[in-house]
Amino acid sequence: MSERVKYLLGEDRIPKAWYNLVADLPKPPPPPLHPATGKPIGPDDLAPIFPQAVIAQEVSTERWIEIPEPVREIYKLWRPSPLIRARGLEKALDTPAKIFFKYEGVSPAGSHKPNTSVAQAFYNKEEGVKRLATETGAGQWGSSLAFAGSLFGLEVEVYMVKVSYGQKPYRRALMETYGARCIASPSPLTAAGRAILEKSPDSSGSLGIAISEAVEVAAGRDDTKYALGSVLNHVLLHQTVIGEEAMLQMADAGVDPDVVIGCAGGGSNFAGIAFPYIREKLAGRSHARIVAVEPTSCPTMTQGRYAYDYGDTGHLTPLVKMHTLGASFVPPGFHAGGLRYHGMAPLVSHVLELGLIEPRAYAQTACFEAAVQLARTEGIVPAPESSHAVRAAIDEALRCKAEGKSETILFCLSGHGHFDMQAYTDYFAGKLKDVPFDRAALDRALLELPVVDEN
Amino acid sequence: MSERVKYLLGEDRIPKAWYNLVADLPKPPPPPLHPATGKPIGPDDLAPIFPQAVIAQEVSTERWIEIPEPVREIYKLWRPSPLIRARGLEKALDTPAKIFFKYEGVSPAGSHKPNTSVAQAFYNKEEGVKRLATETGAGQWGSSLAFAGSLFGLEVEVYMVKVSYGQKPYRRALMETYGARCIASPSPLTAAGRAILEKSPDSSGSLGIAISEAVEVAAGRDDTKYALGSVLNHVLLHQTVIGEEAMLQMADAGVDPDVVIGCAGGGSNFAGIAFPYIREKLAGRSHARIVAVEPTSCPTMTQGRYAYDYGDTGHLTPLVKMHTLGASFVPPGFHAGGLRYHGMAPLVSHVLELGLIEPRAYAQTACFEAAVQLARTEGIVPAPESSHAVRAAIDEALRCKAEGKSETILFCLSGHGHFDMQAYTDYFAGKLKDVPFDRAALDRALLELPVVDEN
């Protein structure tokens, strides 16, 4: 029993504050712009859809933002999450590298998403909101908000992309178990939905349409607000508990990472593990390389343009400066639904521009291969999204082996794959293909980027 | 942060030995009998299908059996499992009772089953076995043995009841992710399977048939053994880590249980939480009532007869004395597949006869109602089997409320329901019915019990 596997922390070591990277950046991130005026937006522009406390966090430049006590109380249900030394994987790879992962799949909804859904539900409840509306694709975010809503007595209405609503009935069942209402989008309940259904009664929906429906519901009712699961600053902020805890646990393990890895779709779990380490790098206290992993099918950071763009296909959101494939770019179907977003979080894009992180892209079959290797050595079946971080960690460990270096690798395993077993079935049946990236489609989508005067 | 939610233990506090209740019983349990001779069976009778170390544990009267170091090393992947104070549930019930649950769903396969699958895989590997054959119904056991096999480099062949093979493709995908081969039973690979298929090409299979196939494969090949997931003494033994850890954690919490609850199908998770407490009761160190919960659709303890019976429908196994509905009794279809067994573990049956435990039966809709209440207050979606324990814990807490007593309730939450969401979908759709127990069918099945001279 000499070698430890899990590094656990007591509940008293759940962080007392979220970390806001904006406070420490050498250069502030470009502001979001109003789509009509092209001028920076103010808090009032967001008031119809977000509670005041969330808006204040979105624009805050404070370094530390206190985590309210009731949020920390709920975090106790699964936090601090474990840091695990992947000894079985190390042995299978025969690598001199030490591999650690921070496992966020222990949350009730099975991913890192409740770190922010609980916070958002709390602030909404505090401000008298009765109901939250949101969209979901694969269902990770919808089920996380449903969970948070159940604890605070908030009604939750989830607009789920119709094709996923049909394909993923068990994610929907999970939302309903938590008491949420799950609606196939486009729906007849909103003007946005009805407009689509009139033109295309058989529309299979899209995240863009579902966002429009949820925002419309939130904007149209005083008792209802909107909640978003990634991309925006306040969401990334709430996820920093991941990195703050990991840092304490790595210290308990007596190691300091040489490489920190996270998968990145909207950017929230990546920011969660990475931003605290970026702070340490900026302060000269860490030398870690920080790697953000995306799919080759939706390569915002490695193939996209850093430009102002809309967050949704319907062009209802503010313009934000980010690495984008263009709001009209439609990524091919693949199994990591949580990584199928045309843009990257503005704050993640900003640190990429500043040279503080390394982007990397992988095709999905290579990621499933890594996921299966993790399952057979560590027991955990990763979510397809998280498998991108696993792939990068394995490749770094193999590089260490080739170079004879015993580096320390830390990655975020953002969620489990219990609701994604169809993807594994397809993988074993040889049905998953790596679709070559459609450069021409990207070029077309980039031509449609809005023209913005940045001066 | 004053009130703790989780009681965790360091890896150094994983038990060093399994506890064998047989050593402390006031009266030894009746021996298993050879089906042909009616005489007590000896170790040699079991040698074709089990490794020697497992057979020795099956008949052992030693109080403590050391857990091999490599097994404890693997236990570290998820053990010690957390003990959780269900403060959210207590609040929702407005009860003065304290409710604690030991959560076994944190294991890689999502239930308590790996506590024994890892041990069984270890002993087989030690004795040079290359391949394990087993049966599975709903898939909990098959995926747990698949996980254990992947860690020890053993091939695993799982005969899965054909109707479940079709209905639960994701449990099958989980087994395949762990590298196991999953075969729909009846299959053309065994004589037992072929015999059924000749008569009934469309047979949907049964646990009895699947057992016959797996035992045939194990008995017929020198490099292959059989592994069982419940019922037998050695399986119950391996599960005692649950209760031993819980006892340490309850001490950390400064409480002693007044009621200890587990669901019981074959009896293994129940024995795991209960047997250490039965030891304490017998020694006068605990006053806890110990409650075993079964489904009203398959009520072995509350409606069955305590008699010698076969473990399988094919009458290939030894005769064991247990509470049984008769090996030919076919329980109606319901969603807690893990509780659909015609008998109860002989050792659990024995302590029931000795008056050391209280049996209780619940209908499934009442259990799903309890499961949903747990999900909405504690975040965890229970397996349908485990929901029986949740129902009993809630009822005990409501009794405490009615009586104004602040008792301490401990239950085992044996697994999560991530692979059982169809059951929740059916529940919300109002499709689950509580079928009245068929007393006449029981009477018919009991008429077929073998005649055994017990003197």
UniProtKB/TrEMBL annotation, chains A, B:
Tryptophan synthase beta chain-like PALP domain residues: 77-415
Keyword terms, alphabetized: Amino-acid biosynthesis, Aromatic amino acid biosynthesis, Lyase, Pyridoxal phosphate, Tryptophan biosynthesis
EC number: 4.2.1.20
Catalytic EC class: lyase
GO cellular component, one term: cytoplasm
An MF annotation (GO) of this entry: pyridoxal phosphate binding
N6-(pyridoxal phosphate)lysine: residues carrying this PTM: 113
Cofactor(s) needed by this chain: pyridoxal 5'-phosphate
Biochemical pathway: Amino-acid biosynthesis; L-tryptophan biosynthesis; L-tryptophan from chorismate: step 5/5
Keyword ATP-binding: no
Quaternary context: Tetramer of two alpha and two beta chains.
Function in brief: The beta subunit is responsible for the synthesis of L-tryptophan from indole and L-serine.
Family: Belongs to the TrpB family.
Protein name: Tryptophan synthase beta chain
